[in-house]
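G., the chain you wanted modeled:
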Amino acid sequence: MDELELLKKDWQANSAREDQKISSKDIYPMMQKKSSSIVKTLFYISIAELLFWIILNSYPYFASAEYRAELTAMYGGNSMILLAITVFSYAIILTFVYLLYKTYRTITVTDNAKKLMGKILKTRKIIKYYVIYNLVMAFLSISFGLYYSVYNNPEIAPQFAKFNDKQMFVATVLMVLFTGIFVLVFWVFYRLIYGILLRRLNRNYKELKKLEV
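Predicted structure as tokens:
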């Protein structure tokens, strides 16, 4: 049990005795510190994720000429489209990192519970939209990659061209299932990584609401 929980229990146990009562002003700084620590951790996780995606996407591109050729062919030979999509994706992640950092900085200097609750709500909203964005992008990327493989990949497309309607239907169902499972794995990953911290942040929010009453 952490220091904040012990202090809250002591506050509740002695609330009936005025001479021993701990005011909300004693608890608020600890709530602020705890919330700030959680948002700081979220910020560090977002930095780690940014570096992970940069390495994951960059290494195969620079290490394999065949991969570069396939990627260029996937976008119709137009490298500018690929560059624009890459820049846009990283811009979204960088924006997310910046917003989290900005929230963390403001939480450390917030001087009342109402403002802190607002920052907690803002943090939850940022994470929510970021996770939705990543799930949508994962779905679109996989769908586009499968479509390209079926109709344009010189090694795979000829095999699909020989399929009859029944075989094509089965293949389509399998691809949809594969996409769904992959997106589900992404969702579970974000649920574990961000969900635990957001639940702690949400508990802080509820405790702050009690202090405001």
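The longest helix spans residues 165-212.

Shout if anything looks off.
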